[in-house]
């Protein structure tokens, strides 16, 4: 066990796109767990657009990360010392960690660290396809959108950690036509060649709306929105009567302010009697295991394509933070910090 | 039967608040019905905020009223000549009419004129509490919001033709706490003294948000939105987790442009997993009779207070059009044109 605890602390609240200079590197001594706490060694950090919200003043659905505190992240770790009866040394765990080699975690909150069961799939899947992204996609598609085989479904940010899984879930459920939206021909190729989508449309292309309309001659029955903004307005106009929309994110806003621009075309909700609902995994915390089992089965059956971008080295932690908003490669972005012992 | 057909024609597409000068008075000769048509004499015209949308260039969910055409209205009339086997001379009918003494109506469209059954209640109720407003309120409350006895429900434009009925429907269904929003102390008094709401909050008062928050200590479970704009944003912030919102209108926009300002706080949909759905009566056209029967029963039981503002005289038709947006008295605004024969 190293004696050094490397940390990346939030130096200031960033304006606009987050940068490395918004964080401060520090080396601290190892923390000591008290009664009811565990000491966890960091193995992997997952990257998610919502981390940008956590460092705004309002924090969104969680308290904001404080200035001078280690940056919050979803992660995988290993218990190296436990003073809580439910956790043993050596346990592999997942949940909220932070950007440091060692984290002391209280495990009595509403979302405690989960002990990972022994499994024959890679540990990192717990951060992506079987973690927040995959499970959010799963409940959004099956429980919110309640997709039907006859549906035409459109999914934005279709190469993202959530969107890429959402499309495959729709196809696994037998949906007739699933269309992914992404920026650039390379990502669009990935959508139909690696993921199981039926078609892809490049939103950066000048004939984007015309092309999408052509692919959805009877309108869009279900839209999985990860981006908000103009795209949401475009889809509101394309929705079929009584269509369903799930609001999963508004990445186009960059999450730099508490309020994001509202959809100008939202009166389509009224005139087409659309059903628009949000998804937050917190509300499904009692049903996560069922989701994980179904997703794992679909992966084994080849119905879900797993894509991960794994970068190695604690020093890269801040540099990767803006990537979910911009140019990252398809799938889940993960930082590897250490191997389990 | 008069030989003269008085008409109010749309002269131009109004900008902003509609005025009398946007219409032109004309006296025409009586039209003659062809095969499959009926000639209807106008008795009552109902006023509705959505008429403002029909005279914009886009028309909303219906084709726009053309320049030089008689203004479209919901109305009650009497068949004076029929060349359609389903309609007989003397039949009282309701549906889309227009601002003229006599209308030739085709009755084969998706929303044909409905023959009114003999009933022991006033004819005008078919335009208000048993018409579009009352039925929209009924299906929005029972089928979209699916209110529960334990709910805290908030309704905006609570003295309007729809909102006033919506509150009483909630109470008839046993909802614990129903709060109406309106402008000014007089309207707020009406909400609790005439309608059956539990409380009223004056949105023009400086402590409006604090007062509303105080009345909803556990958040708002269901919000009936008739106004959009800042009010919708305020309510998004006050909604309880997994709350429900029905979008029935956006009257605060004045409906002068196709796009109305979108809610800036709409990401609450995601973080609180709200369910936001529209209501358009068109989608309930096979279930209207059941709604009318239930509403009529509740009125007979004293559970729904019926309020109508009836103005007499065809000459007033354009003058009343902006009133649903501004200072009109509570309830349904109706113009009386003639008595049935």
TrEMBL record, chains A, B:
Gene3D superfamilies: Medium-chain alcohol dehydrogenases, catalytic domain, NAD(P)-binding Rossmann-like Domain. Residues 19-335 form the Enoyl reductase (ER) domain. One of its GO terms (molecular function) is oxidoreductase activity, acting on the CH-CH group of donors, NAD or NADP as acceptor. Keywords: Oxidoreductase. Pfam families: ADH_N_2, ADH_zinc_N. InterPro entries: ADH-like_C, ADH_N_2, ER, GroES-like_sf, MDR_fam, NAD(P)-bd_dom_sf. It comes from the Bacteria. The keyword Transcription regulation does not apply. This is Enoyl reductase (ER) domain-containing protein. It comes from Paraburkholderia steynii.
């Amino acid at each position: 066990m190293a004696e050094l605890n490397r940390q990346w602390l939030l130096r200031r609240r960033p304006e606009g796109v987050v940068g490395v200079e918004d964080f401060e590197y520090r080396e601290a001594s190892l923390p000591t767990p008290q009664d009811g706490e565990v000491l966890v060694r960091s193995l992997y950090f997952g990257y998610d657009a919502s981390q940008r919200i956590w460092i705004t003043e309002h924090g969104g659905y969680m308290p904001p990360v404080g200035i001078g505190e280690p940056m919050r992240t979803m992660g995988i770790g290993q218990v190296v010392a436990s003073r809580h009866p439910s956790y043993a040394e050596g346990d592999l765990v997942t949940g909220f960690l932070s950007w440091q080699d060692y984290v002391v975690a209280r495990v009595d909150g509403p979302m405690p660290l989960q002990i990972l069961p022994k499994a024959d799939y890679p540990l990192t899947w717990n951060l992506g396809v079987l973690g927040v992204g995959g499970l959010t996609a799963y409940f959004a598609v099956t429980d919110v959108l309640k997709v039907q085989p006859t549906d035409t479904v459109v999914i934005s940010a279709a190469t993202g950690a959530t969107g890429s899984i959402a499309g495959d879930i729709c196809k696994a459920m037998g949906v007739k036509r699933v269309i992914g939206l992404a920026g650039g021909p390379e990502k669009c190729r990935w959508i139909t060649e690696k993921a199981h989508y039926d078609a892809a449309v490049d939103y950066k292309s000048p004939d984007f709306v015309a092309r999408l309309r052509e692919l959805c001659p009877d309108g869009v029955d279900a839209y999985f929105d990860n981006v908000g903004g103009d795209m949401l307005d475009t889809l509101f106009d394309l929705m079929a009567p009584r269509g369903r929309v799930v609001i999963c994110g508004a990445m186009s806003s960059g999450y730099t302010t508490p309020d994001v621009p509202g959809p100008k075309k939202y009166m389509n909700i009224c005139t087409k009697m659309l059903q628009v609902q949000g998804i937050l995994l917190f509300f499904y915390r009692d049903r996560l295991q069922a989701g994980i089992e179904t997703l794992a089965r679909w992966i084994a059956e080849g119905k879900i394509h797993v894509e991960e971008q794994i970068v190695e080295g604690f020093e890269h932690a801040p540099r990767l933070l803006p990537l979910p908003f911009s140019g990252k490669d398809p799938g889940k972005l993960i930082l590897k910090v250490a191997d389990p012992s």
